[in-house]
Specification:
By secondary structure, the chain is an alpha/beta fold. It has 13 helices and 13 strands. The strands form 3 sheets. Strands 2-1-3-4-5-12-11 form a 7-stranded mixed β-sheet, with helices on both faces. Strands 7-6-8-9 form a 4-stranded parallel β-sheet, sandwiched between helices. Strands 10-13 form a two-stranded antiparallel sheet. Helix 9 packs across helix 10. The structure holds beta-D-glucopyranose (BGC). Beta-D-glucopyranose binds next to helix 3.
Length: about 375
């Protein structure tokens, strides 16, 4: 690793080998209860150990900028990446929380650049500045990996062979929701609650402009239309920032006017689907005969899967945070040892490589297969 500022590595939120002690042993886990701050306070000594080991192995340091530690999906990916780094020891993982704030993201990135990290992994929320960020990464001379976010353009990739992206194929998750909802609608004529011949849906969006939000919302509706279903959007673009609480609040407000019209809720992640379900329950849905409403989500979190089992969520798309973390780590591991990143060299199920873009597959999860929708954040094999 670059020696620029080892001491500084301890300065910002630092996650280390001993953080694994805090990792919950859950399988298919929700966000571990420990916060970034707790981790920072507890783990400084471990950070030194991690550094020492990294140095001894002649390995590399990664600065990982996550958009929000409090996000369930991100929290699971983050913890898995920490676990893999600690178990393998080749790449030392340090990370920072952007708290869903663009300027915090920028200062986190700059801190890592100052520290001279070998890899900058960015779960980018500054969606309008991708090229600018790519140029900055190039100027710093480190590797850049865009993770779980919009990929840089072909032009960006052409400029810098140390640039990669690792993300799920968001189109698949949108299609999975839309197709399951279409199937439900076609099998249940009573699902047209106001009898207008249209599927009146509420669309809950994540962060505005975020790749997954844009693509999941478009492709879910597209799948309904492709199935010949006439659709009607209720409430317009409801931005909930991937947050359960915000979704609950916004759906509750919508129910005041549209309770008799809404036929379905399409949420761009499970957290928002769960918030919608809470609001729907409070509004009299899911309380007995003829009160069911199809709700779709993405991620297959523990609570999302539980909602499928409870019969409150129709479908979710497994977005595997463990596979995301493994893929990020593997890209670093391969490039660090001078190997090419290909589908074969990645060697991970459901992961394919196109140029410098690494894509992860989703899979549908319904009541029929929910028991198989598991992952283990303590699985460190890559
Ligand atoms: C996940 C969401 C998460 C978002 C954050 C998406 O891929 O499905 O649950 O909130 O990433 O970037």
């Amino acid at each position: 690793m670059k020696k620029k500022a080892l001491a500084l590595l301890l300065g910002i939120c630092m996650i280390t080998m001993t953080a694994c002690g805090n990792a919950s042993s859950q399988t298919s886990g929700e966000a571990p209860a420990s916060t970034a701050d707790e981790g920072a306070a507890d783990d400084t000594a471990g950070a030194e150990d991690a550094q020492a080991q990294g140095e001894a192995a002649g390995s590399a340091v990664a600065g990982v900028v996550w958009y929000n530690f409090a996000d369930t999906f991100i929290s699971n990916a983050r913890q898995t990446l920490i676990n893999i780094g600690a178990a393998d020891g080749t790449i030392t993982i340090t990370d920072a929380d952007s708290t869903n704030d663009v300027s915090t993201q920028t200062s986190n990135m700059n801190n890592f650049f100052t520290q001279g990290v070998d890899y900058l992994v960015l779960n980018n929320i500054n969606t309008g500045a991708i090229t600018e960020i790519c140029d900055q990464i190039q100027a710093e001379g480190c590797y850049g990996i865009f993770a779980n976010t919009d990929t840089p353009s072909d032009e960006d990739f052409a400029k810098n062979d140390k640039l990669y992206s690792v993300s799920s194929v968001a189109t698949q998750s949108g299609t999975i929701m839309g197709e399951a909802l279409a199937e439900y609608w076609q099998a249940h004529p009573e699902a047209d609650r106001n009898g207008n011949g249209k599927l009146d849906y509420v669309m809950l969006l994540g962060i505005q402009g975020h790749y997954d939000t844009t693509v999941r919302s478009q492709y879910s509706v597209q799948a309904l239309e492709d199935a010949g279903i006439e659709v009607n959007n209720i409430g317009g673009e409801i931005i909930c920032d991937y947050s359960r609480a915000t979704a609950q609040e916004k759906v509750a407000a919508l129910l005041a006017n549209y309770s008799d019209d809404i036929d379905a809720v399409i949420a761009c992640n499970d957290d928002m689907a769960l918030g919608a379900i809470e609001a729907l329950k409070a509004g009299g849905f899911f309380t007995g005969d003829d009160t069911y409403l199809p709700v779709c989500g993405v991620d297959a979190t523990v609570n999302g899967c539980q909602a499928i089992k409870d019969g409150t969520m129709l479908v979710t798309a497994l977005n595997n945070p463990v596979m995301l973390a493994k893929s990020i780590y593997k890209v670093m591991y391969l490039t660090n040892s001078g190997q090419e990143v290909t589908t074969e060299s990645m060697g991970l199920e459901g992961v394919s490589v196109e140029g410098h873009r690494v894509w992860l597959d989703y899979s549908p999860v319904t009541i029929d297969n929910v028991d198989q929708a598991t992952y283990d954040i303590n699985d460190t094999a890559f």
